[in-house]
């Protein structure tokens, strides 16, 4: 358990740049002793459906997109912003104008120059098609580009989270000349990206691996240090553990092995463990109901499920005690917004049976009240194992749940496009601010079939909408915290989802790779600073 100390209460950064103050910072020289050359192999448990995050937030896509496609800013471990494609930035005192001075002499991988027109196009596109973009840029009314290296964002109302929302994985800047005039979500560049980043896309062998090569024209010379980066997909948990243990894998983020293997792997010579680099994600696991299904339209059914599914069993048995049981949608690491004393539904099978009877779902002659499907996100072993526990627990009150497995692309299409599901066991990221990471899951205006990782429940509550929209523009930190407390209190009454545990996150890495985790984005950053240490 030593890898995961109890969550500490720490202040969360609402606005990293003082309003009206110019920020001009440079990344420290992490790799002063770095040498050029070599290959690093990064492991993912599931294959991402796309290689850029301009229109997608599939969890594993965040690990590949920033290798080629950069953002305006990057962030340290305290989520203070640092320069990337933007060298300087100012925020007006009223919080309505963000001015970015862009880095000069940056080229896209196809040789075209990077300009403010690319920034304007990308951010406008994110607002339209990105699952979180409509939240993040809700108050954006215009982007001015007075010259090739200046982009000015104009807002109708303040957005206190915006300066922290500009990382490569969250707000990628893509080439206008490649995407303009196309259906962005279907553009071939999503599968063969062209960016400004340290690595160039070479090949994607479906079901096996992606190969990236060093960008010799990268603006931040002499980086990147690696000549090649390989991303391998290993869906089998036992095979992942073996590949890591035998040295086939150099970087394995997001706790890619069964939690039961962690203690054994800590004893393997040459392996090391890093728990930093997840400050930008703050993942939780949750059960989401499809409120378009007649069964789950009735809140009594959802509350009955909450009386049956024991999050502590999942924490202690499925997660081996790693992480923390959570009563609501927010990870304890986001201490400012976390509410530990929310209403919960005690495990009470009799109460559950009574609610199901009242909702009009009595037991049949065979003892079954309803037959439904349970889909789980195919990422790691906690979800299939947790789903099996959920199935067994519900059987005690007459709910016959069939657990369905599928690959990531099929799962995403089933849940968000086809709407062919009853309820799902899934992981979601709170990200760096609940307006960005949590609002998307419950805001009625964010329900749009085909847009993944948004309001999959099709949940709608006008009071919750009102509070979400108010908190998104509230500049008084105290008022904003109180608004989020009220939101969470309403959500646990309505139960559109059952929040389970905060996810333990650890990167397992080969000690021969240095400077892979240099800020809050961790392995989901560009890896421009990573290098193979001299033997």
Automatic annotation (TrEMBL):
Q: Name one GO cellular component term.
A: ATP-binding cassette (ABC) transporter complex
Q: Which UniProt keywords apply?
A: Plasmid, Signal
Q: Answer whether the UniProt record assigns the keyword Nucleotide-binding to this protein.
A: no
Q: Which residues form a coiled coil?
A: none
Report the subcellular localization: Periplasm
Q: Name one Pfam family in it.
A: SBP_bac_5
Q: Which GO terms describe its biological process?
A: peptide transport
Q: Which InterPro entries match?
A: Peptide/Ni-bd, SBP_5, SBP_5_dom, TAT_signal
Q: Could you tell me which CDD domains the record lists for this protein?
A: PBP2_NikA_DppA_OppA_like_13
Give GO MF terms, alphabetically: peptide transmembrane transporter activity
Q: Which residues form the signal peptide?
A: 1-31
Q: Which residues form the Solute-binding protein family domain?
A: 81-445
**Similarity-based family:** Belongs to the bacterial solute-binding protein 5 family.
**Descriptive protein name:** Oligopeptide ABC transporter substrate-binding protein
